[in-house]
Amino acid sequence: MTQGVVVEKSAAPVGVEIKGVDLSQDISPKTFCDIESAFNEHSVIVFRDQTITPEQQLAFSDRFGALEINAFSKYALPNHPGILKVSNIKENGVDIGFSDAGSHWHSDMSYTAHPPRCTILHAIEVPSSNGVILGDTLFASTGAAYDSLSDSLKSRIEGRVAVHQFSAKERGVKAPLKLSQAQIDKHPDVRHPVARTHPYTGRKCLYVRQGECVAIDGMADEEAIALIKYLSDLCVEERFIYRHKWRVGDVLMWDNCALQHIALRDYEWPQRRMMHRTTVGGDVPV
User: Fold this and answer.
1) Residue 170 binned pLDDT confidence (cut-offs 50, 70, 90)
2) What is the pLDDT of residues 63-74, one digit of tens each?
3) How many CB atoms lie within 10 A of CB 245?
4) Domain range for residue 100?
5) Single pTM value for the model
6) How many other C-beta atoms can be found within 10 angstroms of the C-beta atom of residue 258?
7) Residues 144 and 276 in one domain
């Protein structure tokens, strides 16, 4: 089935809405090529008013690359290990999904040797109060942030490698994550370029985050931590941010090389949020 792709840009450096595509239907190679091109160029794409099954979300995600299983897989959708429930919903006082996902600025799974290419969320339930949608997600363009650097700072970070730590003690979350020793052992420290090259566009993007990056090889700790903080603060300046206001039925995907993001926590249980998340594997950062 041929579907006409219409790309509507946001006013931000990243973020577009794609219209004219029904993800519950077969997507032609030409239409998928248009979608992938828009994704690589704009970093965040959203399809509004989608009604899809878990199987359809998995099939769409799989077209972008091999699916990955999240470290918090105990919150996977039953019978669908590739879909993580991102939710604050409780049953008998117990979380049924990963409730702390995205509550601090980060790039998904940067603590892995092969960080994911992209993450895809399908909005099942969206929190609101008195008709006002809550729980917006903010996306910051790390490519635009890199472009804003002075030539001297670009030279300073050229070839530098930062240490990303899964169990970093200051991850910026409201409450410390409860990590098992098995989870920690499974994710040893990894090293990635401070400025990595986008594997599809060749654009340089900053790839450090305060609280998750704990050092820069060959640099004194005090200098490294100060530089990580400076670059982290720069990335999330308002001029680089696209703010997404969710609607039920949204299917939104983002580029984990070109962005950092945060899910705002301006709601509380029993205001309900449920997202189905898939993760697509990526390349070793260079």
Assistant:
1) very low
2) 999 999 877 788
3) 12
4) 6-125+247-255+267-280
5) 0.92
6) 31
7) no
